[in-house]
Amino acid sequence: MRIDIITCLPRLLDSPFSDSILKRAQEKGLVEVVIHDLRTYSMDKHRRIDDYAFGGGAGMVMMIEPIVRCFDALKLERSYDEIIYMSPDGEQFSQNMANELSLKGNLMILCGHYKGIDERVRENYITKEISIGDYVLSGGELAAAVVSDAVIRLLPGVLSDETSALTDSFQDGLVAPPVYTRPAEFNGLKVPDILLSGHEKKIEEWRFEQSVKRTEEKRPHLNKEK
Ligand code: SAH
Fold this sequence. Notes:
There is one protein chain. The protein is α/β, with parallel strands linked by helices. The protein has 2 domains: 2-152, 3-Layer(aba) Sandwich (Alpha/beta knot), CATH 3.40.1280.10; 169-225, Orthogonal Bundle (Trp Operon Repressor, Chain A), CATH 1.10.1270.20. It contains 8 helices and 9 strands. It has helices at 20-27, 64-77, 95-101, 119-124, 141-152, 193-196, 200-218, 220-225, and strands at residues 2-7, 32-37, 50-52, 60-62, 82-92, 106-110, 128-131, 185-186, 189-190. The chain has a 5-stranded parallel beta sheet. The longest helix is centred in the C-terminal third of the chain and has 19 residues, at 200-218. The protein binds S-adenosyl-L-homocysteine (SAH). S-adenosyl-L-homocysteine binds at residues 86-89, 111-113, 115-116, 131-133, 135-137, 139-140, 143.
């Protein structure tokens, strides 16, 4: 898989991809993440990528020209399955969407800033708009990192324990059961006996019951959606 992220603040994306699982996924060649500085596609010597909104009002708008120049340059190299715009009014991101995106080959993600991007980009070039929740961030970078992280960890070979992503919350319409590690007792706080019993089948059953109970408590709508 290849993910091209287009941003006017590339440094904001340095650290999310240079540690831990996402770093190793790239080192193993399972995903290529390429960050593009939108300013290098600017039309003028000041490398401007935004301008005042037609009709007035506060806030700058990202211009169509640098964005389309960047899209065109990338599309000359390869075809893209989706050209995504991160947007607070986009489709709400979910595990299902992450699963779907993880099956794609090449993704482009455009990060907005200021008041957002010229509407003509959204109408004519963007194939998918994603929101990470009903709140407003100052830019699309953190949102793009969230989406990329959720997608990349699903790619085969990225997580060392192959089954690990499948037993995460949401994959089966349930949230994950509680987990514990050593010590078995800390200041009188004990780990449930069943987990120390060595009885695999009973442990599985217990985990499933806990998942069902937690889902009912914390995400009751998951059960109703099924
Ligand atoms: N004026 C716009 C908000 C712009 S916020 C509005 O009211 O809708 C600046 C940029 O941050 C957006 O262009 C988008 O790329 C990104 N962004 C903000 N909140 C987001 C969210 N919840 N999900 C995804 N991207 C978001």
